Amino acid sequence: MFNVAPPSRRTFLVGAGRFAAASALTSVLPFPAAAEAGNRRIAASALKDLAGAVQGGVVLPDDPFFGDYARPNNLRFRTLPTAIARCASEKDVQACVAWVRKHGARFAVRSGGHNYAGFSTTPGLLIDMTPLSTITALPGGDGLVKVGGGALNGMVYQALERLNRTVTHGRCTTVGAAGFLLGGGIGFNMRMFGMGSDLLQSTSIVTADGALHSDIQESGAGSDLFWACCGGAGGNFGINTSFTLRTFPVETVTFFDVAWTADVDEVLYTLLTRLAEAPPEFGSKISVTKPARGSGSQQLTVSILGQLHKCGTTVEAIIGPVLEKASKKTITPDMPYWPAQDLLSEFTYPYFYQEKSSYMKAADITPSSVAAMIGMARLMPGTCMANAFKFFQVGGKVNATPAGATAYVHRGYDWLFSSEVNWWDRKDPKSLVDENLAWQERFYAAVNTATKAVGAFQNFPDPSLKDWSSAYYGGNYARLRQVKTDYDRTDLFTYRQGIKPL
């Protein structure tokens, strides 16, 4: 067993005695209720009851660490909760579900807090899963690992490194593993192993009736719910308390990081079309970056970052002659797997951003469509931060799974495209931010039209997306609605882009 969760920094509201002192300033706390119940105020006695039922503790706004626990990664959505329940067990999760049902209270569930659209924030009860983060290698020698529903990606990586194994994983260590897996989960290994959700063998989940469904899997009782958890996105069907994943032994990889500042149109077109034929052992992300406004240069840079597992070819042969035009080139063969991931990883501090995504096929990308992208990118107003549009390479094993086999429907594409706008509110005036967001909408629409790109990645939720149900779930949405109806007919687990019951 690997218990890599950080120790709790203090003891919170546990039981009636400590609650009385912590809530001495008020006997009635404001607590917006669920929409169907209207606005209500929840008495302090109700939170006292919750504190007595949640062994992990309940944190109130006067606690010195409240802000740390409440802060999301996307600072656009800084809604403060009324209270934070720190769930340290499945019984704690069940107690929270029973409590919100009893009081009609608004709530959200969070582990890492990286939801792009702020769906893991709430003015009500924030159910914090991070204490439930034990990671266990299961016996039997078949490489199965059970991950707690509150584990962060970085904790999973530490445990897997000790086992000399890996999965399809992301780059950001502070992302919650639950959200990552439930929405699909992309990473440099996905072309070789499949999406993160494709590696799910079972999951445990507390549903709206408070029942714990333990280790549901592809066959047997709860198979429909398991199907929905493989890409149906978090916050729709219940609170997942654990995930059992199939893992793979690690080997050495070739790490590469290459950039171009000249002939960027030609380079980008070449990469987007040529790399679609790369073997599944090749995983990459292409970025086109515009420097921060006022940085002295607005020159666009095309870069590619990734890794190549052992196979019958090399990075140089895959990328081809365009390498000769690179302004920066790092290609390191035979690196131990997990040290290579240190070079591929990123740590994101909380800031302000908006991301839009879609899926495209290499066959639909033309020199003129790439030239149009580059031309529009040069016209982006810019902010005090660097901005980029990116292409995450899919295909390979991702496309080997039929679109209806799991809730993750986006099969048959070569690239997951995304456009990001980043800013800092203390330096970028609202008028400039609005100008950049308007540019992003035009850019996104133009790129989609020019490349026939469709859909959107549910792990990059976009609050401005109009037809989100079709974009995220395509032909799987009807079945997802049926599962939602079967397990949450009253729509207890609800948010603005949440799957709706029939």
TrEMBL record:
Keyword Flavoprotein: yes
Stored Pfam families: BBE, FAD_binding_4
PROSITE patterns reported in the protein's UniProt record: FAD_PCMH, TAT
Keywords attached to this entry: FAD, Flavoprotein, Oxidoreductase
Listed cofactors: FAD
Residue intervals of the FAD-binding PCMH-type domain: 77-250
Similarity annotation: Belongs to the oxygen-dependent FAD-linked oxidoreductase family.
PANTHER family noted in UniProt: BINDING OXIDOREDUCTASE, PUTATIVE (AFU_ORTHOLOGUE AFUA_1G17690)-RELATED (PTHR42973), FAD-BINDING PCMH-TYPE DOMAIN-CONTAINING PROTEIN (PTHR42973:SF39)
The protein, known as: FAD-binding oxidoreductase
